[in-house]
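Section 4.2 – Deliverable D4.2 (structural model, holo form)

The reporting period included a commitment to supply a predicted holo structure for the target in complex with adenosine-5'-triphosphate. Inputs used:
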Amino acid sequence: MGRIVGIDLGTTNSLVAYADALTGQPKCIPGPYGSTLCPSVVSIDTDGSVIVGQPAKRRLLTQPERTIYSVKRLMGRGPTDIQDELKLFPFRIAPASRNVIRVRLGDKVFTPPEISAFILRELKNWAEAFFGETVDRAVITVPAYFNDAQRQATKDAGRIAGLEVLRLVNEPTAAALAYGLHEKQRGKVAVYDLGGGTFDISVLKLISTSEGDIYQVLSTNGDTHLGGDDIDNLLQAFVHELILQHDRVDFSPHGELAQELRKALIQVKHQLSETEAATLRFSLPNGKVFTHEFTRGALDALIRPVVDRTMGPVKQALADAQLKPADIGEVVLVGGATRTPLIRRTVQEFFDRKPHTELNPDEVVALGAAVQANILDRGVKNMLLLDVTPLSLGIETYGGAVAKVIPRNSTIPASAQELYTTGVDNQTGIEIHVLQGERELAKDCRSLARFTLKVPPAPAGLPRIEVKFLIDANGILQVGARDLRTGEQHSIEVQPSYGISHAEIERMLEESIEYAEQDFAERQLIEARTEADTILAATVKAQANPKSAELTADEGAKIDASVAALKESVAGTDYKLIRKRIDELNRATEHLAELLMSSAVSTALEGRKLAEV
Amino acid sequence: MSTATTSTNSEKVLDYFAIFGVPRKLWIEMSELEQKFLQMSWKLHPDNFVNATEQERELSLKRSSELNDAYRTLRDPIARVEYLLGIEGERKEGEKKQQAPPELLEEVFELNESLEELREARASGQDLTGLQARLETAEKSFQEKLGEVDAELQSAAREWDATLTVDSAARKKVMARLNELLNRRSYIRNLVTNVAKELGEV
Ligand SMILES: Nc1ncnc2c1ncn2[C@@H]1O[C@H](COP(=O)(O)OP(=O)(O)OP(=O)(O)O)[C@@H](O)[C@H]1O
Ligand SMILES: [Mg+2]
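Output (structure tokens):
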């Protein structure tokens, strides 16, 4: 079995990390552009090939209709949930969607888990290139406040990407693991995580026992649709209005121009975390340049509502843990948006304590995922993570009310048994509706699943069927039933209210393997071309060397022919042919390579390729 | 949903007290319970079984969820009483759930009247301050009653622990008392929640 990696599948950026085999130290793996951050952007080219990360991000400006960002916002959601998002984000939703959203990218249509799978597969490639071996198992992080459907969608994405998802870990919990605060401090820790699209607050208790350290989550809360994106939306709406008033230029909120404005505004926003003022310069289609001077104070006033929205969940999480701000020993800030000075100040004032920011807020979640991967892989026995379910699990009862069977902040795995019987003679089925949420009425909670319990015909009230609801260590629901009169297990086909069926996932997996083959060929081509460039350049250099005069005319002609043949193959797309021609040129230049070396070393290095000399 | 009737815990065979190896007493030393919980979590948690057989993984999931359910229940003093009565077969919510306990009848009647007046006054846009103050006083009075019930529950719980070795008739009597107190408690709590909700809407 291959390695287990830790993946932070973020709204804005995704990362992959591993734990060092010897020291257990977690590290992020860099991608082909040197950065460990993979922008969570996916673009589909006209020929159907998939582009992920940095190059896809550039295409947001040139090919917005084939490119998508912040797809995490759509994970595990139904068409009716996302109407508000559609006003703010340029998602192109395909009309044929049922309970699962389908997004249009160019002339193709994908579900959110499929798009997330492209990102996961890219990170898998990074890790495989780094280790030189297959990577097929992963720990993936999710916002702590993700519900069952959002978690299931993330797990599906892993499966479609060809990864066995061994555990979903909550992002703030992962951050606490990465900080390993237990070494310095034992006590209560609050993790405040504001990323691009989601907000989480978790309260943990760190306990050291003779067996090792326990990270026990006491409570968690949050908002899965609150983050830096919302700050960007506020800025964009504000500047749109200014441009409309001053220059009478109106543009579609989802077009290329809007994307460019958004990009410029994000830069201004980041700048204002460092300096007191920053200027927006933006070229309008009418040739004019719109400029606006932002002060940090003006930004603070604009984003105050977003910051305030995070404080409700913070207070609720503390109340649920039965703690006061003063009981918290350590505060940890996670997520790029916590670089904003107003947010740092607000959190610091609330807890009356300087928060930890030592670890890079972009990497800390991925690092924690790698720590958890290490615990699972090697059975690291000196660390234990006890997490909780963020939302109460309930069953619909008479009159559309909800009976809570597993309260929020229960340590997971957690379960509940309910006993069902029939109301009329020979009734053959009992309808069960499972929900998640804190509200009292079913219509205000999140529907997870509906199913019908099959009952053998019998007089009313006689059947006794026990249904077991179990939330596993990933925070995902499992349902089982048992006929108490016969002891027979019933298997229940639970159709999730929002989610993809098992069969669909398998089909997507097959399709994605086709994509993967395409991806593979593409990567091979890029690598072969790069290698060809290197050897061609080395050959030109070597031929310019006076020593090359010692070659025979025949040898010289052979080199020239091989160079021409390689150049021709590089213009095509057959990576196998390029490799073949590289080998041919290498053979043709063997003597030349030797001539370039002093005779002393030439014997030691015999058979070396020209590019290595 | 109309055909489903649910009832909890009447068929539960799993004994949460036995999981922790403690007697069925209502007074529990919390730090000891926590120690045992953490110790057993080390052994049972699914994280330890990722590379194990399917069977072992299933078992770890079952056992660790039972451990967590047991800890969640026994840690909470009210849930603990409720659970104990359940496994002893003495928890009876009955149809009386919606009925006011006799000694509260008068006050509940007044409260409902005030609530009705408040709703009418709000609907016709009248001044609410007087009514609001009256309701706030009533809410406080019921809050105090909740405290009294909790104190009575505590004393009944001590009685239960003392009767563990005594004859079953005495134990049945204590359980009936505990059951009645639980019902009263949930009735008053519902009242307080409803009043708080009405006041919140003002
Ligand atoms: N210097 C900065 N000042 C203010 N905001 C910043 C700064 N740097 C990054 N951000 C913001 O942080 C957000 C991205 O944070 P991060 O990479 O932690 O999110 P994510 O992990 O992708 O999202 P999530 O965790 O919500 O899924 C973006 O909105 C970005 O604009
Ligand atoms: Mg994040």
